[in-house]
Amino acid sequence: MSSVHFHRLRVAEKTDETHDSCSVTFELAPRQREFFGYRPGQFLTVRIPDGDSSIARCYSLASSPHTGERLRIAVKRVDGGLGSNWICDHVRAGTEIDVLEPAGTFTPKSYGEDHLLFAGGSGITPIMSILRSLLAEGDGRAYLYYANRDEDSVIFKGELKDLQAEHPGRLVIHHVLESVQGLPTAASVQAYARGLTGLPVFICGPKPFMAVVRETLRELGFPREKVRVERFNSLGGNPFEAATPLPPESPEEDAAEVDVAIEGRQHKLAWPRDQRLLDLLVAHGLNAPSSCSEGVCASCECRVLEGEVRMVNNQVLEEEDLADGYVLACQALPITDHIRIEYS
Ligand SMILES: Cc1cc2nc3c(=O)[nH]c(=O)nc-3n(C[C@H](O)[C@H](O)[C@H](O)COP(=O)(O)OP(=O)(O)OC[C@H]3O[C@@H](n4cnc5c(N)ncnc54)[C@H](O)[C@@H]3O)c2cc1C
């Protein structure tokens, strides 16, 4: 059996970033969180429906693992492109998308020094993740050279301004707009990078952009091993063909733990999140009092001493009963992971 799993993630939000790009934020179910730890600059592989079949495309994470924000990718439309246009046209809040776990090596070794970053167009995506992480975790400067066609094409323009304001003096940005200065040239790269030789460098953007930047840095004497590049190619194969969905969670895995004192004895039980307390006790052969089982009579009343539960229906307990911790076992579902309950 394959050891590669894919995960079905729910889209929390989709935002148009520019006229031809969007960002997509994912929601993680509690169980998915352990699989989506990542390093800044890594990417997700996304399954894109294609008729009865599917293709796979990689999209870098623009979010930082160090700022508590949700996973976010940013996608720029490619003329005639299948994946990028499907995402920009069809994905909405609530859409479920299959993705592989984060991967990639375009990631800083440490946060404790200044960094030089080059982004062209959608190449800003992994650079943004790196940038946010450097600013959040380190105390050095980030020098960003950012090339775009025109002002309206600048992805994350507002967020970059906000970051500059939040970290005064630590984010130095040089915008290059083709509509104003023309295409990025060796001379412009040289003017920006001269004096920064030796810093770790991250470059992501269209092929010709990366070629000019790399060649210029080489001429300036930047050591090759400190210059990292990320190439935005489309995948030829489909890694989802060899992947399987994560096996469903067993009920025990998604259960709270409850200590119940009933008829003078203590019982420790796993309490599945979707099972009512009375049903749980009966299933374990315990003699729990009950009558209507509909939340209207209070025969099953018990008291929560520790933790929190919620009731699906309560037509009988008053505010002061609830304040004293009384609940109806026939309607109670667990909220916290550990709960202590007592029957009088
Ligand atoms: C590690 C990594 C990270 C990436 N991160 C990002 C990111 O953050 N943001 C982002 O926007 N992109 C990113 N990419 C690029 C992304 O994966 C896609 O390559 C990009 O979105 C284009 O895919 P597409 O399906 O839209 O276009 P494709 O369908 O791959 O088409 C690309 C171009 O080729 C042409 N084409 C397709 N098939 C043919 C054919 N048979 N003959 C002739 N021409 C053809 C299309 O018309 C189009 O112009 C990343 C790629 C990698 C590898």
UniProtKB/TrEMBL annotation:
Its cofactor is FAD. Residues 256-344 form the 2Fe-2S ferredoxin-type domain. GO terms for molecular function: 2 iron, 2 sulfur cluster binding; flavin adenine dinucleotide binding; metal ion binding; oxidoreductase activity. Keywords: 2Fe-2S, FAD, Flavoprotein, Iron, Iron-sulfur, Metal-binding, Oxidoreductase. PANTHER family: 1,2-PHENYLACETYL-COA EPOXIDASE, SUBUNIT E, NADH OXIDOREDUCTASE HCR. This is Ferredoxin--NADP reductase. Residues 4-109 form the FAD-binding FR-type domain. It comes from Amycolatopsis acidicola. The keyword Oxidoreductase applies. It comes from the Bacteria. It holds the Pfam family Fer2. SUPFAM superfamilies: 2Fe-2S ferredoxin-like, Ferredoxin reductase-like, C-terminal NADP-linked domain, Riboflavin synthase domain-like. CDD domains: fer2 (cd00207), PA_degradation_oxidoreductase_like (cd06214).
